[in-house]
Amino acid sequence: MNASLRVRPPLIFVAGAAALVAAEFAVLASQAFVRHPQTVAFAVAFDLVAMPALLAWLTGALRPWTAAMVGAALAGSLLPGVHLRWLTAPAELVVVGLVLRKFSRGSGDLIERLRAALPDTIAARIAITEATLIWCGLLSWRTKPGPGLPRTGARGSSPSTRR
Predict the structure, then answer these.
(1) pTM of the shown model
(2) What is the Cα–Cα distance from 94 to 27, expressed in whole angstroms?
(3) CB 68 within 8 A of CB 53
(4) Helical residues (DSSP H) of 60-155, grouped into ranges
(5) DSSP state of 81
(6) How many CB atoms lie under 10 A from the CB of residue 37?
(7) Do 70 and 49 contact (CB within 8 A), yes or no?
(8) What contacts 117, CB < 8 A, 6 or more positions away?
(9) Quick one: average pLDDT of 50-63?
(10) Cα(49)–Cα(2) distance, integer angstroms
């Protein structure tokens, strides 16, 4: 059994994170949240930030601070009235940036490497599309064009320049 735990750390991490989110949803639906919303919301936010980091550290599936950022984004999205909402967008950008940085280090096309690494599901296609847009818009400024592609500023024949 110990060998099977070492083989599947991402699966164990996802299962543990799903159980954590389900437990936090149950807490948010309880009477304790109705009676003491700020206190329970703070406890849920702490759980959603600290527990994924601990789970990532135990399984080795992710870096703990990456899991904490994902938890902060989730806490900011789930909890109304908690002042973590302003962390949601920056945390998502950091997570997407970390994924892109990890995949951009190798050789070959970034998008092809993402397609090879992720399963062929709708969620994966959405993630690849978002990563492509962020890559092209923000991170590809210094990328040199491949063979056969025009350089920036190169003169070519376009319909507006032909007479």
Answers:
(1) 0.49
(2) 28
(3) yes
(4) 64-78, 85-104, 110-117, 122-134
(5) T
(6) 15
(7) no
(8) 103
(9) 86
(10) 27
